[in-house]
Amino acid sequence: MSAVIIDGFQIAADVRHQVAEKTAELVKTGVHPCLAVILVGENPASVSYVTGKEKALAEVGMKDRSIRLPESTSEEELLKIIDELNADESVHGILVQLPLPKHINEDKVIMAIKPEKDVDGFHPVNVGNLVIGRKAFLPCTPHGIIVLLETMGIKTDGAHAVVVGRSNIVGKPVSLLLTRRETNATVTICHTGTKDLASITRQADILVAAVGRPKTITADMIKPGAAVIDVGVNRIPDATKKSGFRLVGDVDFENAKEVASYITPVPKGVGPMTIAMLMQNVLEAAQIAAEAK
After folding, report:
1. Catalytic residue among 7, 53, 230, 252
2. Catalytic residue from among 97, 172, 257, 280
3. Mean pLDDT of 30-39
4. All residues at 6 or more sequence positions from 17 whose CB lies less than 8 Å from its CB, including other chains
5. Tens-digit pLDDT profile for residues 72-119
6. I want to staple 191 with a disulfide (CB 3.0 to 4.6 A). Which of 115, 118, 147, 166 is the partner?
7. pLDDT higher than 90, residue 236
8. Span 124-153, average pLDDT
9. CATH fold of 30-114
């Protein structure tokens, strides 16, 4: 029996619909949620992501303060723009699209964004609050994964979750969210230093693959009946496609779906949730700013 395919596209649309309703209510009070997205250079993947964010902002009725800068923009110029946006009360969220050109220090840029406008959830203050369980802007992809699990009714309480990948953007934060009291999973984090990866992934009731390599997780590495969340977005050559490539995840989807009970596809799985949760974070930032007035 094949796994239930988790429709992240539809779940994300439902989240955006709820955000749109709450945004409309907030606008009536005189506060119009606004996100400033800064893109430096023309990395094709980054341009695509930013375009997706701009489209989502329009859909939920938020203001879009997109700033597109040339590759040659200096670190000093970028930090000056962030300072100006920090001081602008009409801007509720600031997001700098990563990766940045090599001559710009990403850590310095992330640190420059006010924690209360850090809707990506990358600032050390928000990361620290996540670790100790205080209210914080949650990183969008990890938060989206938790919402997918909740929406599908996948039991996390007492479950053994195995996270493959330890990035600051997905692996570490999703591990922390899974161990929170309200989620209550037991978590194992695997990475490049893990010996006999398959013996650990086969213990997972919930398996999160976030390694950035195509089809790293094969069907024989999955416990029968496990819920599989595939965070990977990898381009592989495909002559049948107009673009010359197609997107695949970190999981061998076709074979894995015959073993798992639930599985996210790539695309239209975790990806749409990332932007939906970003919209939710911008809404929360605007609500907090409105209450502080």
Report:
1. 53
2. 97
3. 97
4. none
5. 999 999 999 999 999 999 999 999 999 999 999 999 999 999 999 999
6. 166
7. no
8. 97
9. Rossmann fold (3.40.50)
76 vs 80: CA distance, rounded Å: 6
CATH pick for 140-271 out of 3.40.50.720, 2.60.120.230, 3.40.50.20, 3.90.550.10: 3.40.50.720
Same topology for domains 30-114 and 140-271, yes or no?
yes
Domain ranges of the chain: 30-114, 140-271
Write down the catalytic residue from 120, 205, 230, 250: 120
Supply 197's token pair: 């990866």
Dump pLDDT digits (tens) for 140-173.
Answer: 999 999 999 999 999 999 999 999 999 999 999 9
Residue 208: closest CA among 164, 167, 252: 164
Tally of helices (H runs) and strands (E runs) in the chain = 10, 12
DSSP H helical ranges for the chain: 8-28, 44-60, 75-87, 106-112, 124-132, 140-151, 171-179, 197-201, 253-256, 271-292
Tokens found for residue 235 = 């381009």
CB 158 within 8 A of CB 201: no
97 is known as an active-site residue: yes
Q: Is 196 a catalytic residue?
A: no
Determine whether 101 is exposed, middle or buried from the number of CB atoms within 10 Å of its CB (0-12, 13-18, 19+).
Answer: middle
